Automatic annotation (TrEMBL):
It catalyses: RNA(n+1) + phosphate = RNA(n) + a ribonucleoside 5'-diphosphate. This is Polyribonucleotide nucleotidyltransferase. Gene3D superfamilies: GHMP Kinase, N-terminal domain (3.30.230.70), K Homology domain, type 1 (3.30.1370.10), Nucleic acid-binding proteins (2.40.50.140). Keywords: Cytoplasm, Magnesium, Metal-binding, Nucleotidyltransferase, RNA-binding, Transferase. SUPFAM superfamilies: Eukaryotic type KH-domain (KH-domain type I), Nucleic acid-binding proteins, Ribonuclease PH domain 2-like, Ribosomal protein S5 domain 2-like. InterPro entries: ExoRNase_PH_dom1 (IPR001247), ExoRNase_PH_dom2 (IPR015847), ExoRNase_PH_dom2_sf (IPR036345), KH_dom (IPR004087), KH_dom_type_1 (IPR004088), KH_dom_type_1_sf (IPR036612), NA-bd_OB-fold (IPR012340), PNPase (IPR012162). One of its GO terms (cellular component) is cytosol. One of its GO terms (molecular function) is magnesium ion binding. Its main location: cytoplasm. It is found in: Cytoplasm. Its cofactor is Mg(2+). Residues 623-691 form the S1 motif domain. It comes from Suipraeoptans intestinalis.
Amino acid sequence: MYKKFEMELAGRTLCVDVDRVAKQANGAVLMHYGDTTVLSTATASEKPREGIDFFPLSVEYNERLYAVGKVPGGFNKREGKASENAVLTCRVIDRPMRPLFPKDYRNDVTLENLVLSVEQDCSPELTAMLGSAIAASISDIPFDGPISTTQVGLVNGEFAFNPTAAEKEASDLTLTVASTRDKVIMIEAGANEVPEDKMIEAIFAAHQLNQKVIAFIDTIVAECGKEKHSYESCAVPAEVFEAIQAIVPPSEMEEAVFTDEKQTREENIREITRRLEEAFAEDEEKLAVLGEAVYQYQKKTVRKMILKDHKRPDGRAIDEIRPLAAEIDLIPRVHGSAMFTRGQTQICTITTLAPLAEAQRLDGLDESETSKRYMHHYNFPSYSVGETRPSRGPGRREIGHGALAEKALIPVLPDEATFPYAIRTVSETFESNGSTSQASICASSMSLMAAGVPIRSAVAGISAGLVTGETDEDYLVLTDIQGLEDFFGDMDFKVAGTHKGITAIQMDIKIHGLTRPIIEEAIAATKKARTYILDEIMNPAIDQPRPEVGPYAPKIIQMQIDPQKIGDVVGQRGKTINAIIEQTGVKIDITDDGSVSICGTDADSMAEARRLIAVIVTDFEAGQVLEGKVISIKEFGAFIEFAPGKEGMVHISKISKTRINTVEEVLTLGEEVKVVCLGKDKMGRMSFSIKDVVE
């Protein structure tokens, strides 16, 4: 007999079934939110994985198209690799969960979520987030939970919690907040330039709702929770640190890490490590943990320097940004390019424009979104950090960074009616030393403007860091963290936006949550830095979008036709439209409402395509003059084609002002002629005259 727990959450019923399915997992729950159903499990290996110095957590979010009554498209009728949405959901689950497992835990842990059914008004992603937290909390795996997650929308100035599909469509905010009992542990947001104070209000409104869910989870754990199992700690013994400090005193370690050159610092640490390896050559136990010990020694040194001495490794002030540079038109012949440099972080973004038919088609669980017009892709090659490894395509980090930049820029893009293009930006990481995702937002904003995309406002991004002490009041927020401060610090708080407000947030932390004062200070610090970057660095490079797209970009003209005439333009099996494309060399897109986009690089060819379409959809009246080509000659007259698939007849009596015996006396096949419309003949065909054309 299984146990069932229920609560009302944002106007819908959240139901949790325990001990109903998957009983061999360490923890498993069958989650129901409305009709959305997700199986969430938490499983751990019996023994720690050997030879690693990190906690091996894997998070999976498995979408099954049967959940929305679909069969996968394409030749392979089985779900393939994870969709971008699934990858991003895994990352959102991972970020608040990971800090709550013991740092010295080395057993493999997998949090798996299987989406079984989807009701569009009840988010399967949110259901999986809650399911993972509950499964880990009731399991015997060491986990300092529970946590809860809430999604927030902003509709007509009012917050909507766990919004429905209709509310999401109308919302100016897509915010996800995860909380522990006391603090906020994860923030992910996309917003239409929402002011900072409104964003803070939304975050803590979600935090308040999370407390009700945590209380609900507590009742489940009290009744169904297993005793947490003991584990073999992999922490570095205190005597190893003492032995290391006897050889490398703290002052020497400070000197080694106190430099603004990443390569110099890494070489200093390599030299220290070599000395320690020689000193411990006969001591296998110390050698086994030496790498982790040196890492921890660096971490303690950097944190002490920042928190107690207010010194940063590169010598900057706490709120100082690294040297910045911006330029555009770096790459010839592409549609738009820009490079943004912040210290040793350097991103080049290239913009490509294409017809709307090139928009990305989506085949997923969200039935409201079937295509994506703006695509941002982010690449992080090994050379950007001075390493070598084979390229295996984008990983979860690259997909996540691309999605964050995409989210930050979507609010300022023009609509399709204003700018009928599909848009792709690709951010290439040339060099990396912290916060490349935010540099890619700056570079992408400039690249879009350089390409002639009429964005409403420039967007800049910056990251704030954090070092905490023993109490909640003992902390220091850092502006523009570099790689070392990210590795050894407690937070990477990324905020992107315009002068008007925030367009995206992503918060990663390594501690058990943030207090409201820390979040408010971080948002204020990023606002100040973002304003400086926009005004002093990006605007001098390009302060507004170019008035038109570049010479190598496709040009698009639009026209509107009667939807009833779409079939005439397309023709049987596409014969007519393909003939226009072949004749003019343009691309043509037609939507169901009769919107026609003509895309090409030659203005004359585009104008000809537009003329031909206009001719096809026009119901000609007597007296109208047009040009056509003789395509057929009969004894009784000639047929004139004035657009692909559109033709009419000139009777032999209407060809010449003088009497002729045969059509061939005056006309030849392929000849271009002017005709005047006489209306329709008895057979319903268009009838024309050549002799009655008034020059």
